[in-house]
From TrEMBL:
It holds the Pfam family Thioredox_DsbH. It comes from the Bacteria. This is Thioredoxin. It comes from Methylacidiphilum kamchatkense Kam1. Residues 2-162 form the Spermatogenesis-associated protein 20-like TRX domain.
Amino acid sequence: MNTLSKEKSPYLLQHAHNPVQWQPWTEATIQKAKELNRPIFLSVGYSTCHWCHVMAKESFENPIVAELLNAFFIPVKVDREERPDIDQFYMEFVQAFCGQGGWPMSVWLTPDLEPFFGGTYFPLESKWGRPGFIDLLKKIANLWQSHRSALQQQGQEILNKMRESILCSIETESQPNLTQIARKTVEQLWANFDSVHGGFSPPPKFPRPSLFYFLFRAGSFKELPEPLQNKAMRMALFTLQKMACGGIHDILEGGFHRYSVDAQWRLPHFEKMLYDQAHLAIAYLEAFQITNDSLFKETATAIFEYLFSHLYNPAGGFYSAEDADSLTSSGEKAEGAYYLWTMEELEQILEGVTGKERSNVLASFFGATDQGNLPEGLGSEPSMRSKNMLFFSKPLSALAEELKMPIEETKALVLKAKTALKEARLKRPKPFLDDKIITAWNGYAISALAKAYMVLADSRYLNEAKKTANFILEHLWDPDNKILYRIYRQGRGSIPGFASDYASLAASLLDLFEADQDEKWLLQAKVFQELLEEKFADPYRHQYLSRAIETAATIIQTREEYDGAEPATLSLSAYALLKLFSITGEEKWKKRLEELFNSAWPILERFPTALPYFLGVYLEYSVSPVEIILVGEKDDLKTRAFYNALSSVLIPNRIFLVLDPRQGVPRTFKSIDFYSNLLSVYPGYPVAYICARGQCSLPQTEPEKAIELLKSHATLFLEKDYLPSLD
């Protein structure tokens, strides 16, 4: 057992029994490397990562590897979810060094923490064009003894290039024009768009939810040519449709896997992450608001059911992830074992649903074949041969025609089949659960739940959003010292929150305020946004450092400049700043937002698709806000029904305020006199006002008429036939 046995991270604990004498990333570990004058071998991964498990089994449990690492290096393990700053900094080095990144990440550092060699997964012995890990360790150990200066120079040259890149993004002679960048972004995405299967890249295909946020707003932005607006909307809706029907979407228990290894979204990389569920739930909710297509609604609600059944902490908050690997029937770990089926298994279960004659037809509807349906070349592992990943292979109408059944009966039959398959699968050994509660990721969940309540009018979503927010504020927020912490697992961890944690909570509590209309969420959001500016503002670039300025090590100062699986801090902050300005009218929030728009211009000029979420916020800012003011008693059922009806329409840059005549106007709101006048003429029942471009509608007392008025501002509203139906 090594020193990782004292850690709380599930990933670090997975390596506590390795013969490698792993050390955590601490000052004492770094000092040890300096005293012994040894290079650090840094291994970064996470607990649900398949290739991390492969390298651990092949190499870190190998006595020869352990002997080499222990004798010539200081081996250090880092959970990327605990320390995203370390992960991001060295990932940038690895990407610059070898042209690609990923996990597990393997980096060799000097005792001064300067990287000089790196990569991702290395097999134990040379294969697939990758050097063998044992040979690599021997060579680096030898070079450290004989040609140390050459190694250090190699790393220094790459670090210098990284620093030049940072300086390049600070200085520019161009005048900011983010509308032009938005146009370029749509054009670039269209050029790379897979018009057959959806998505924006060759495999592996990642969902990247920030793209949907941007595309929906670009689809309504009048400054863009109408053909580009149409392309933006079609790319987003078509991709979401294809993903919902593919194997990347768990059609039995809900939720999405991390990414698809094939072009058709059929074979996923099986881990499930909380951040994907939260952001994709919002994307599907917005797609439902736009199209009124039940596919999008059902996909969103299934994501939430997955959260409640698999990642739910009864005390509050959501766990971080489920593993890609799980146990087979023979007790061995294999990727996707929980999710894959043989045709024989499927037919046996489906016979009980529809009879023997139709079971194979139903199995075929789910994409299954006798030989297995995994794409050629991707199912070569013995555990995956002849296995099937479930997805919808054809429209429901085609199945109804094949079975010669009415469409509603066919739909009921498919639901019954899914239920039977789900019950059978629940008897299998479940994937490993990483039960860390991560502040930023729970912020995303709060936003998703708050928006689900607004769109779907299910009070459970609002209750769970409030429960999660209260858990974070109670267990991970120290109000006396104004410190937000990153991780909760068996108690609060010691790692202070990063910029993304503060930004995520600021944004999510504003969403929760809009859903709950309790001023306390607005006030707390202001606190987190103010702390983000105070602790993390980058004095050189007017953006944000990942770590607080007073705690950031000189060598590791990272900035998030890319909306990937999670939106960058820059994007989350822009979202929160826009909402804070819209609600409070405080000019400091607008000034800071415009500063961010200007500071991001150099990044976006070079890489238009780098920050789609951020660009989506810019597009919202660029249109006139629509203010919905509902006057009525907040706990009155009629007020709540009116509120949910108006919430169902998707409008960029919308402000929704509920004014309760019993409580008066919160002092944090702008236009207090105007709102007070509305309260003074309150007739005793809910009344809605729709305000835009400096004018307000006549008071609306009927939700249907108010919605029609609201839709005149909702350029995102589309009829269902805009998208080919799956029925």
